[in-house]
């Protein structure tokens, strides 16, 4: 009569709780070529800013790596119109959080809400349909795996080279470090487009001082370059050298998860030649060391390798394009040859404007037809 | 530091209030024998939260947003149900007190240790997972040293101290008033939890009306200010409240307060005296 018995047996409730959570938790399995398999979207939430590293995504599982750099608590939301797709509340100052969400094709908004009020600071996100996988085409799959093996080989080769450079910097041996500098960049320059897909590594490793936004740290190869060729004291640069070793090691470890498709290989080849045209021909890339031609060698190697792995696919589709590319690459090598000195290259500051123009023309001659390679290889 | 402290305070406050009042009620009803069950519920909730938090943090497993909101929302509503049960139990104790001042309160009011353990478990566990994840994130915080974790831990400690003070204060209040007023306080807390649960379910798109606000005073009461935190942690006040939240809150709090504070209510005098003492409990 007066005895009040708990309506719910406790054990049942506890069991239900654990089962609910364990059953709810799922392993996000990124769709092949979807989401942010090519690295998380970095969201830097300040007191009145909301920096989003990338706003073009592909459908699938995406990860937003959020850091609150402000002094107030913040929230990060992903909206589809008015609908909340996902959110993370209570991101305290100085804390970081990874928000994982499966996004379908469409337009979304990402919002930071400093102080947890209002509509927040919003950026549009455009999610493209997931790229068709190469899985249904054995030839395409072979090409992709061959290119991945090349990237892995280059990334693996870069680790000891960068380590040796870092050791010399730490030892304060500027002369040795100067000799090791350009060779340590060569593998990187061969595979740079794939490395750039890991959005957070490229700026740390390969940013040029002129391209930095105010407040960015100047790190990576070019920081060391500046110090080595301007006679700076090397002692304070040990952390920069250590970070570069850590980053190149991370790069090598992440190659297996890089999203590589015939299209991305072809576009990467084009991107390498654009690198040459915009950065190296002008002499801006290696402003202190003038080892630009080593970088050019790496870029051209990487682009040719891309052409080689796509050759079976592209030759079937567009044999004329492949023949033209082979001829243009030969011309480019001929234009570079006079500047070769044994194993290496002349210092780029010894080239006069006319010589630079000749090189530029040879690069453009490859670059222009190369823009058709991705399409030819992926049809 | 301060902002992280306030998060810890807000997450911990409601749980420490409910547990503080629950312990005070049991002590005053002469049911100290049920206290170990409360402690068990709290410890279990902490272990479950920390364990699940660790699982979610250390593996790449992740709950989808909708699952999280459904889980949080359902727990909130379950929690409201249990606190409501507790309030009704306290009301009966208060009524018996009015009927028979000398009676040993609660002797005739069996309250299952399991039930009070559950109340404590849900009060602490409801926000426990969220808090555990927050603490993990604070512990992992890069570049800001131990400050975020320390802030969050201090906030939780402050919440625990406030809960203890409420408990001490509750022991001093006049016995008859205690049950009435703490019952009323719990109704308001539970109303806040209900509104919060409704909002979770709106965010999960289970319930409509996420963007139709009844009022928005975030300008006057910023959610991350200390007074915003206190309001949120105690009565569950959200500066930007949707219509559905407001309606749910009113529909719960108003009738429940009327029930708890109703001064009359025929005391069970007829049965509170002799007969029950000799009649075997059916």
From TrEMBL, chain A:
<dbReference type="InterPro" id="IPR034981">
    <property type="entry name" value="Imelysin-like_EfeO/Algp7"/>
</dbReference>
<feature type="signal peptide">
    <location>
        <begin position="1"/>
        <end position="31"/>
    </location>
</feature>
<dbReference type="Pfam" id="PF09375">
    <property type="entry name" value="Peptidase_M75"/>
</dbReference>
<protein>
    <submittedName>
        <fullName>Iron uptake system component EfeO</fullName>
    </submittedName>
</protein>
<keyword id="KW-0732">Signal</keyword>
<feature type="domain" description="Imelysin-like">
    <location>
        <begin position="143"/>
        <end position="371"/>
    </location>
</feature>
<dbReference type="InterPro" id="IPR053377">
    <property type="entry name" value="Iron_uptake_EfeM/EfeO"/>
</dbReference>
<dbReference type="InterPro" id="IPR050894">
    <property type="entry name" value="EfeM/EfeO_iron_uptake"/>
</dbReference>
<dbReference type="InterPro" id="IPR018976">
    <property type="entry name" value="Imelysin-like"/>
</dbReference>
<comment type="similarity">
    <text>Belongs to the EfeM/EfeO family.</text>
</comment>
<dbReference type="GO" id="GO:0030313">
    <property type="term" value="C:cell envelope"/>
</dbReference>
<dbReference type="InterPro" id="IPR038352">
    <property type="entry name" value="Imelysin_sf"/>
</dbReference>
From TrEMBL, chain B:
<feature type="transmembrane region" description="Helical">
    <location>
        <begin position="12"/>
        <end position="30"/>
    </location>
</feature>
<feature type="transmembrane region" description="Helical">
    <location>
        <begin position="70"/>
        <end position="89"/>
    </location>
</feature>
<dbReference type="GO" id="GO:0015093">
    <property type="term" value="F:ferrous iron transmembrane transporter activity"/>
</dbReference>
<comment type="similarity">
    <text>Belongs to the oxidase-dependent Fe transporter (OFeT) (TC 9.A.10.1) family.</text>
</comment>
<feature type="transmembrane region" description="Helical">
    <location>
        <begin position="37"/>
        <end position="58"/>
    </location>
</feature>
<keyword id="KW-0472">Membrane</keyword>
<feature type="transmembrane region" description="Helical">
    <location>
        <begin position="101"/>
        <end position="125"/>
    </location>
</feature>
<feature type="transmembrane region" description="Helical">
    <location>
        <begin position="243"/>
        <end position="261"/>
    </location>
</feature>
<protein>
    <submittedName>
        <fullName>High-affinity iron transporter</fullName>
    </submittedName>
</protein>
<keyword id="KW-0812">Transmembrane</keyword>
<feature type="transmembrane region" description="Helical">
    <location>
        <begin position="178"/>
        <end position="198"/>
    </location>
</feature>
<feature type="transmembrane region" description="Helical">
    <location>
        <begin position="145"/>
        <end position="166"/>
    </location>
</feature>
<dbReference type="GO" id="GO:0033573">
    <property type="term" value="C:high-affinity iron permease complex"/>
</dbReference>
<dbReference type="Pfam" id="PF03239">
    <property type="entry name" value="FTR1"/>
</dbReference>
<dbReference type="InterPro" id="IPR004923">
    <property type="entry name" value="FTR1/Fip1/EfeU"/>
</dbReference>
<keyword id="KW-1133">Transmembrane helix</keyword>
């Amino acid at each position: 009569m007066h005895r009040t018995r708990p309506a719910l047996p406790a054990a049942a409730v506890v069991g239900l709780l654990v089962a609910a959570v364990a059953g709810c938790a799922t392993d996000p399995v990124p769709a092949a070529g979807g989401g942010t398999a090519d690295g998380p979207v970095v969201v830097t939430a300040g007191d009145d800013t909301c920096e989003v590293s990338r706003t073009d995504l592909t459908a699938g599982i995406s990860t937003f790596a959020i850091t609150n750099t402000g002094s107030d608590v913040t929230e990060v939301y992903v909206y589809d119109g008015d609908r909340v797709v996902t959110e993370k509340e209570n991101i305290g100052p100085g804390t970081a959080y990874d928000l994982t969400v499966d996004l379908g094709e469409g337009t979304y908004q990402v919002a930071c809400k400093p102080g947890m009020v209002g509509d927040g600071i919003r950026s549009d996100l455009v999610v493209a349909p997931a790229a068709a996988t190469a899985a249904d085409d054995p030839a395409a799959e072979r090409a992709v795996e061959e290119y991945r093996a090349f990237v892995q080989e280059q990334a693996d080769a870069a680790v000891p080279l960068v380590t040796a450079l870092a050791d010399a910097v730490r030892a304060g041996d500027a002369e040795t470090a100067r000799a090791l500098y350009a060779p340590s960049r060569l593998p990187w320059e061969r595979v740079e487009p794939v490395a750039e897909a890991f959005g957070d590594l490229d700026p740390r490793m390969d940013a040029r001082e002129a391209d930095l936004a105010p407040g960015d740290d100047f790190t990576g190869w070019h920081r060391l370059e500046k110090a080595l060729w301007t006679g700076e004291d090397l002692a304070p640069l040990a952390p920069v050298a250590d970070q570069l070793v850590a980053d190149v090691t991370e790069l090598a470890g992440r190659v297996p998860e890089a999203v590589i498709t015939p299209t991305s290989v072809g576009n990467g080849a084009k991107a390498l030649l654009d690198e040459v045209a915009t950065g190296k021909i002008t002499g801006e890339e290696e402003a202190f060391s003038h080892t630009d031609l080593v970088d050019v060698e790496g870029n051209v190697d990487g682009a040719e390798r891309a052409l080689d792995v796509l050759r079976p696919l592209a030759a079937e589709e567009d044999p004329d394009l492949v023949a033209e590319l082979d001829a243009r690459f030969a011309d480019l090598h001929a234009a570079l040859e006079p500047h070769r000195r044994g194993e290496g290259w002349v210092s780029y500051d010894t080239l006069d404007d006319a010589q630079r123009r000749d090189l530029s023309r040879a690069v453009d001659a490859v670059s222009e037809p190369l823009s058709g390679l991705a399409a030819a290889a992926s049809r | 530091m301060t902002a992280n402290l306030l998060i810890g305070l807000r997450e911990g406050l409601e749980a420490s209030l409910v547990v503080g009042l629950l312990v005070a009620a049991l002590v005053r009803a002469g049911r100290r024998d049920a206290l170990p069950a409360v402690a068990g519920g709290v410890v279990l909730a902490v272990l479950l939260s920390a364990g699940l938090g660790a699982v979610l943090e250390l593996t790449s497993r992740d709950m989808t947003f909708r699952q999280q909101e459904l889980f949080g929302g359902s727990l909130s509503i379950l929690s409201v149900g249990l606190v409501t049960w507790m309030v009704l139990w306290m009301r009966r104790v208060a009524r018996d007190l009015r009927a028979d001042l000398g009676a040993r309160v609660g002797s005739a009011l069996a309250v299952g240790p399991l039930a009070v353990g559950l109340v404590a478990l849900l009060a602490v566990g409801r926000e426990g997972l969220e808090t555990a994840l927050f603490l993990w994130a604070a512990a992992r915080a890069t570049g800001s040293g131990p400050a975020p974790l320390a802030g969050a831990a201090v906030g939780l400690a402050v919440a625990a101290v406030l809960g203890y003070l409420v408990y001490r204060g509750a022991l001093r209040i006049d016995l008859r008033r205690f049950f009435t007023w703490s019952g009323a306080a719990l109704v308001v807390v539970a109303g806040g939890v209900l509104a919060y649960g409704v909002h979770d379910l709106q965010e999960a798109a289970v319930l409509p009306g996420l963007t139709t606000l009844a009022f928005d005073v975030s300008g006057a009461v910023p959610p991350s200010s200390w007074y915003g935190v206190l309001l949120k942690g105690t009565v569950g006040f959200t500066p930007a409240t949707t219509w559905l939240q407001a309606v749910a809150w009113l529909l719960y709090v108003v009738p429940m307060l009327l029930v708890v504070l109703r001064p009359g209510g025929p005391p069970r005098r007829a049965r509170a005296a002799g007969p029950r003492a000799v009649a075997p409990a059916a």
